[in-house]
């Protein structure tokens, strides 16, 4: 008897080891709820994904998906701010360069903390790719 993926069944993915693993998984889950984007993702090759071609498809997803992605990004930015504050509190050094700290988080566009744009998806893909290369 062949084992197959049952529609609607959640598949457990192994931990990627990325400090933004939960954010990555949530973004993927939300994007896969959009039929058009899911089809593009399934037919795209790795070079299309890495080049950012797939990120441009974000403009075609439904309003509900974009709203959910915006919400996820705001939550991730809040989480990162909390990490930065905790790091600052532990160091108690007044000469901390906040922009340098934010640049450590290359998986999202921290200059636009409110909306999830194609650039955010592109940055997330590139960060994951760079980590695994």
UniProtKB/TrEMBL annotation:
A GO CC annotation given for this chain: endoplasmic reticulum-Golgi intermediate compartment
Domain of life, per lineage: Eukaryota
UniProt signal peptide: none
InterPro entries: NUCB1_N, Nucleobindin
Keyword annotations from UniProtKB, A to Z: Cytoplasm, Golgi apparatus, Membrane, Phosphoprotein, Repeat, Secreted, Signal
Residues annotated as domain NUCB1-like N-terminal: 6-128
Main localization (coarse): cytoplasm
Protein localization: Cytoplasm; Golgi apparatus; Membrane; Secreted
A Pfam cross-reference name: NUCB1_N
Gene Ontology molecular-function annotations: calcium ion binding
PANTHER family: NUCLEOBINDIN, NUCLEOBINDIN-2
Name listed for the protein in its UniProt record: NUCB2 protein
Recorded name of the encoding gene: Nucb2
């Amino acid at each position: 008897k062949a084992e197959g993926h049952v529609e609607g069944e959640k598949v457990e993915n192994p931990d990627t080891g990325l400090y933004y693993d939960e954010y990555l998984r949530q973004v993927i889950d939300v994007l896969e709820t959009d039929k058009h984007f899911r089809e593009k993702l399934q037919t795209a090759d790795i070079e299309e994904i890495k080049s950012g071609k797939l990120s441009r498809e974000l403009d075609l997803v439904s309003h509900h998906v974009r709203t959910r992605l915006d919400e996820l990004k705001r939550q991730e930015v809040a989480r990162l701010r909390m990490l930065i504050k905790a790091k600052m509190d532990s160091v108690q050094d007044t000469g901390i360069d906040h922009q340098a700290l934010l640049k450590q988080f290359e998986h999202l566009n921290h200059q636009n903390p409110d909306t999830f744009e194609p650039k955010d998806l592109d940055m997330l893909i590139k960060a994951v790719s760079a980590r695994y290369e």
